[in-house]
Amino acid sequence: MAQVTVHDDSIQLSEPYLVEGLPGVGLVGKIATDHLIEQFSMTHYASVHCEGVPRIGVYHEEDDELKPPVRLYADPDRDLLALQSEVPVSGGDTSEFAGCVSGWLAERSVTPIYLSGRPAEKDGSPEVYGVATGDAAHHLDRAGIVPPRETGFISGPTGALLNQATRDDIGSVGLVVESDPKFPDPEAARALIQAGIAPITGIEADVDELIDQAEQIRSQREQLAERMQQVDEEESTQATPLGMYQ
């Protein structure tokens, strides 16, 4: 049965933000979300058992607790949720996955921040752009985040989540950052946090570690990045310009 199972009912949240970390181009969303979960010592709050999530168990080093591959973490002090995923969501079930997750978020008055990389040749610091659904555009205005400079689309499960929010007229934010199309990109993840997530949510996050440990992060995420290059386009979150005549 498709559902989100809460493990810790003692955690109290009041209209929180959610940071989404599904794997995609440059693994930017995953790197940024993983970093926030670790830095804030966020609590494993719930498990996501929606359609499209592989039925596997995940184990981590120095930890004997087996976990599901897609989880929600919570930080009640910052009124923050984070969706962590170890694997891609099945391309054929992205609509069901989006409906399952979006419904749960809407019931709890959560404002999701969806993250995507846009393959680009970067010149200097990666640029971060924003889009919104429902009544969430004011979050972008308040944070000074500008819309994309060209027409395009966001694919994969993140695109399905944004599409679901549009269909249901739910407030959500989509952040797009210029990123390396082939390799894990900690620099782009840092830009997402500094120029997007932090000014929207009001959190203060130390992101220097993302650059200091860039080589280690790239090495740890290389296998997943290779896997993401092989999966169907619908399984990989990505922002893609359409071009003037498309």
From TrEMBL:
InterPro entries for the chain: Proteasome_assmbl_chaperone_2, PSMG2_sf
Positions of the UniProt region annotated as Disordered: 220-246
Keywords carried by this UniProt record: Proteasome
KW Lipid metabolism (keyword) present: no
Keyword Membrane recorded: no
Pfam families referenced in this protein's UniProt entry, alphabetically: PAC2 (PF09754)
GO CC aspect terms: proteasome complex
PANTHER family noted in UniProt: 3-ISOPROPYLMALATE DEHYDRATASE (PTHR35610:SF8), 3-ISOPROPYLMALATE DEHYDRATASE-RELATED (PTHR35610)
Protein known as: Proteasome assembly chaperone family protein
Species this chain originates from: Halalkalicoccus tibetensis
